[in-house]
Specification:
With 169 residues, this protein is an alpha+beta fold. It has helices at 12-23, 27-36, 91-105, 117-120, and strands at 2-6, 41-51, 54-67, 71-82, 110-114, 126-127, 133-134, 144-148, 158-161. It has one domain: Aminopeptidase, CATH 3.40.630. The radius of gyration is 15 Å and the shape is globular. The structure holds coenzyme A. Coenzyme A binds at residues 22-23, 80-82, 87-93, 115-116, 118-119.
């Protein structure tokens, strides 16, 4: 029923529509476009969910920095959007799961997300403080989360620094 695949150029318009409808504003759609044009974009980690060949969901993972003793590249999950008429059918979960599997296969160490713990805990995301990873935002500890992958090592700690394109969100 749900088909998950990488985005292609003809999807860009509908991806923007899905983000705008899901969030009720254009900021996230614009963020997707800015990340695509930046060196933080990971083409194989921009995924769409199709139902009957129509794109109804989108997830983007891109590179962000983790600054500690050294600066390490990790993965940030944002944004995730499912068309309002298709929410609560497992589409968002399928996108997260597919993205985590691809990131793991790419030997990425960890994925960071700012979001609802109720939604993300089911995938194994935990508060970042557990891993000595500090949020750049003044938010409750439980909403800034980390999912470690097979390539995770203890050296991955410090403060998360998002690229400038995130500043307008
Ligand atoms: C969040 C979102 C991507 C989830 O997609 P989805 O396809 O509805 O998710 P699934 O059907 O896989 O899972 C539904 C679960 O997500 C939870 N959920 C959905 N939206 C939620 C929200 N705004 N706040 C808290 N939990 C939410 C539901 O409670 C449900 O949990 P349950 O299974 O325990 O009832 C989708 O609702 C959406 O696009 N929301 C608007 C955009 C947004 O907030 N994105 C940011 C995510 S951090």
């Amino acid at each position: 029923m749900i088909n998950i695949r990488c985005e292609t150029l003809p999807d860009y318009t509908v991806i923007a529509e899905v983000n705008t409808l899901a969030f009720g504003q254009e900021n996230e759609a614009k963020l997707v476009e800015k990340i695509r044009r930046s060196d933080r974009y990971i083409p194989e980690l921009s995924l769409v969910a199709e139902v009957e060949n129509v794109v109804v969901g989108h997830i983007l993972f891109s590179y962000i920095n983790l600054v500690g003793e050294e600066t390490l590249q990790v993965i940030g999950l944002a944004p995730l959007a499912v068309h309002p008429q298709f929410q609560r059918r497992g589409i968002g979960s399928a996108l997260v799961q597919a993205g985590l599997e691809k990131a793991d296969a790419k030997k990425e160490a960890l994925v960071i997300v700012l979001g609802h713990p109720h939604f993300y805990n089911r995938f194994g995301f935990q508060p970042s403080v557990i891993y000595e990873i500090e949020s750049p935002f003044l938010v409750p500890e439980d909403v800034f989360m980390v999912k470690t992958l097979q390539s995770y090592e203890k050296k991955y700690k410090g403060k998360v620094v998002y690229p400038a394109v995130f500043e307008e969100i």
